[in-house]
Amino acid sequence: MNGAHDLGGMHGFGPVDPEPDEPVFHHDWERRVFALNLASGFLGQWNIDMSRYAREQMPAAEYLATTYYEHWLFGLEHLLVKKGLVKPEEIEARVAELRRQRVGRPAAGS
Amino acid sequence: MRVLKGADVEQVIRKSGGARVHVELPAKFKAGDRVVARNLHPLGHTRLPRYARGRRGVIDRDHGVFIFPDTHAAGTGQKPQHVYAVRFDARELWGEAAEPRQFVYLDLWESYLDPA
Q1: pLDDT for B50-96, tens place per residue?
Q2: Which ipTM did the prediction report?
Q3: Is the Cβ–Cβ distance between A81 and A73 less than 8 Å?
Q4: Where would a tag sit more exposed on chain A, N or C end, judged by fewer CB atoms within 10 A?
């Protein structure tokens, strides 16, 4: 699909600025999202190309404003819901629960 | 449904296969052949970049046979086929303002290509 992921030749993103000694993960949640993707992939309900296509389903404006592992999380949720393994309400309920737990704590760095 | 156990993670990751398919298939193109990338705009997944569609290039080498991502993503089969490194002149892709003697190599599935 002609989505926001197909960036080749687009202007306006600024210079490519490689980070020296870039870590594999910048935040612990990224490590967790990656592991969740591999573990869920092992369920055998989809293949790697379906995973890529799932990430392309993110709305274009959102895709350009979010990071690599946010795309991975979006794609995973998309496939889990599509395959009937998780209901959208279950994801929403868990997010709401985590938000409640965070009340009264300082905001996380990311 | 399969479930991945913690103790099996390393083994599973080490043996996970790539997209190469070990079958003999006739190749439509060979190194040196002139090709044009098809002007495709599928609603599904594709690995043919927009900037290459309709552009002319030359087959640099044949990588062998691989799963076709477009159909694999759609759940309509692996459709194994040759993947070629195709060399595009920068000016073919980006116009006369591009530097001369610069090239872009794209790995493209046979279904993306027509003879030119």
Answers
A1: 999 999 999 999 999 999 999 999 999 999 999 999 999 999 999 99
A2: 0.93
A3: no
A4: C
For residue A2, what is the nearest residue in chain B, using CA coordinates?
B41
CA–CA separation, A77 and A80 (whole Å): 5
In this complex, how many residue pairs, one in chain A and one in chain B, have their CB atoms less than 8 Å apart? Answer: 53
For A67, the domain range is: 28-102
Which B residues in the span 37-96 are in contact with A, Cβ-Cβ below 8 Å? 41-46, 49-51, 67, 69-70, 72-75, 93-94
Two tokens, residue A52: 């890529």
Name the residue facing B1 among A44, A47, A49 (closest C-beta): A44
Alpha-carbon gap, residue A32 to B115, rounded angstroms: 46
Residues of B in contact with A2 (CB under 8 A): 41, 50
Say if A108 falls within a structural domain: no
**pLDDT by residue (tens digit) across B29-45?**
999 999 999 999 999 99
Structure tokens at A91: 């994801």
Q: What is the pLDDT of residue A102?
A: 83
Is the residue at A60 inside a domain?
A: yes
Counted domains in chain A: 1
This prediction has a pTM of 0.91
